[in-house]
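Hey Z.,

So I finally got round to the FE2/S2 (inorganic) cluster thing we talked about over coffee. Here's the setup:
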Amino acid sequence: MTQASVNGVPHGAPLDKDKRNWIVATCAVGGIGVAAVAVPLVSSLQPSEKAKATGAAVEVDISGIRPGEKLTIEWRGKPVWIVKRTPEQLAALPKNDALLADPKSQRKLPDWTPEYARNENRSIKPETLVVVGICPHLGCSPSEKFKTGAQPSLPDDWAGGFLCPCHGSTFDLAGRVYKNKPSPDNLEVPPHRYLSDTRLLIGEDKKA
Ligand code: FES
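And the result:
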């Protein structure tokens, strides 16, 4: 794997246009000789059936995600988004607080937003957001709307984030839901931890 690709997807190519482009990184941890192999198409490589059945943690190489890009992996049959936010996107987050339903992520504690993500960025490292890409309202998968400004179905002063097309819930770039939207909660932050600067473990946040 080189710096010129995100787990096989060339830079310049959109990372997440649809589920066909999901990039699934293996694999279950806890076994002997843990191997992490990533391929560009979900149809080419899935975590093993056993790993899926047990909800095993998934190791992900995040070295190729550039600022402003999102990578989707699958964990427990759910999409998990890893977003590398730009300095400008991070700087804009605090300005959203007054417009949000739960800006400090105090709902459904302790699990919905683990303690290490209970901060303004909802993340361990400020630039890297990790959230489950499922709307807490009725389970649709929101669309990324990173472009700022006026556009269909969004306010004129849109600061970038996600739009759930089913019933119009909107989330900022920390996965926090805006007020008066159908979603009762922010996007879930799954348990996760860093194995190194470039490798994330999704599904487990404590060392065995
Ligand atoms: S499922 Fe997202 S707003 Fe209803």
